[in-house]
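Before going further, learn to read the protein records used in this course. The integers have meaning only within a learned vocabulary of local backbone shapes. To see the layout at work, look at the sequence and tokens printed below.
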Amino acid sequence: MPQHEFFELPPLMSAHGTVRLPGSKSISNRVLLLAALAQGTTVVRDLLHSDDTERMLDALRVLGVAVEPLGDNAYRVTGCGGDFPNKDAKLFLGNAGTAFRPLTAALALSGGRYELSGVPRMHERPIGDLVDALRQLGADVQYLGNEGFPPLRIAPSVLLGDVVQVRGDVSSQFLTGLLMALPLLKQTVSVEVVGDLISKPYIEITLAMMARFGVTVERQGWQRFVFFAGQQQYQSPGIIHVEGDASSASYFLTAGAIGAGPVRVEGVGKTSVQGDVRFAEALGKMGAVITMGDNWMEARAPQSGKLNAIDLDCNHIPDAAMTLAVAALFADGTTTLRNIASWRVKETDRIAAMATELRKVGATVEEGADFIRITPPSPPAPLPEGEGSLLRHAAIDTYDDHRMAMCFSLVAFGDAGVRINDPKCVAKTFPEYFAEFSKVTQAVPVIAIDGPSASGKGTVAPRVAMALGMHYLDSGALYRLLGLAAQRRGIALEAEAKLAELAGQVEIRFEGEDIWLDGIKVGDELRTEETGSAASKIAALPMVRAALLDKQRAFRRAPGLVADGRDMASVVFPDAELKIFLTASAEARAERRYKQLKAKGNGGSIAALLQDIQARDERDTQRSVAPLQQAQGASLLDTTPLNIEQAVQEVLDRYQVLKSESK
């Protein structure tokens, strides 16, 4: 994956607001296939727009089914009564299990020649139990690659079987595919489930959708399903609405639970046919305050402000349970999620992937064949200034799995932010996820103050931070500190790679007006001409600036940060709430510098200082790396006629105006 394909989430402070959910993936693809198999024309409204549904829509068109977009996520599907017009076709279904498994069953019983394939990961997802079941009915299904896995070839065959057995302990999609396809046969057929049936709520969705299209199934517990001859013809319901996706609701409900809330999701509620609505119950067991209506759910944080650890059988919420694994990072104690063997055969091995990525942010994780156990990090001692939170900032790999990307966005509430690699994988079910997530979450605010040398930013910024009770970052000091560390270790100022490596190793923290380097308090040596010259040289090195980027962003912690420096508003914190470009005439800056030197007992002439400032301005504006310029969106503050107190008050006034306008 190219390095640039990532999404950086800043540290988040809170969450509140309302989200309208996209349509359920599980319901969308079931409804599309049932509409195609039915007699009559069906208008499907609120269909999920995603990669998975696009794969199903494309497949139906290739099979000759008339599918007409009506706009606003609505489609008109003209059913073929189970007799697909195209009897010879090749279908590419990506990584859409909700399309691949049901289509395999339907096509195996429809009397045509078909080849079904997908992306490499789809070819690693088992389908042997479904194929074995179809062969019991006489279907001709052959593997084109590894035994038990896609791709598949289907040929016409004589269908004679009346009893079929299928395993229920690998994926509920095998049973779903059979149940949806069996009405194509004109005979009484019984389906027997071998072993325990996992993900029962998804079978409930299947049966409910089939009933909407006129087919009812006699169910004997969860072990036997019977279709009777003469009661098996799908009929269009005319218009059908797709519920909001209950699995997607889990991310926003959890945001409300760990980000104060309330966060409300609309499109799914207590009357939903989706089993994942019970995620709200699990979150409630962790202490979240949950309320819901027929078509909405809402979550807010516990009164204590922190969630409780749980030990839960998650068979009833297999997809949404992934969100509980990340919520466990914000809970007191160790959380155990059980009966999740199906995670192993999803878009990726989700147990292994979840364990790997949770460890990156500092959790202790134990994994088994069908469980995961998560203990959040605990501090051995109070965290030092500038160290961020207990949760470490990490680049999260998503394994081309939409739910990994969405789950781990919640790590940003850990006060360290998070990087999500390959964020576009959310297109599988929720293409606009990150945009919607940003609408209901509030990042730790940043005030970025930039400007030329001696403009006063190094004096104004810390006073603004003190007035607002925020943290302070002197980015210029970081380069001086790195230059000082290089001098102490004998590293040449031209050794870019070694300096970049050193930037990642040094420990830097600010405590009020005091600065610490590798545990040692730094004094006046930080302000010497030699250190300043070293800082100027290394600040022009791209590898060094990149290495210091994450270190600078780590200072962004609640309740907020005031940062001064060259590229604070443009590169380090481009989403800063307030951007100020502080300036003054060269003459005024020379006079200020003269007074500073005189107060310290140092000599110098205003004329020489003016010449030096003008030369530095010229250098700084022309440099190729981080040139001195007013960032886009930054407001200009000319301090020539202002004293320090007036300049500080002006920044505070602008911040208050901004806060008032955002309410």
Summary: The CA atoms of residues 458 and 564 lie 7 Å apart. The chain has a mean pLDDT of 89. The two ends are 40 Å apart (CA to CA). The chain has four domains: 6-21+244-441, 25-241, 444-470+559-663, 475-551.
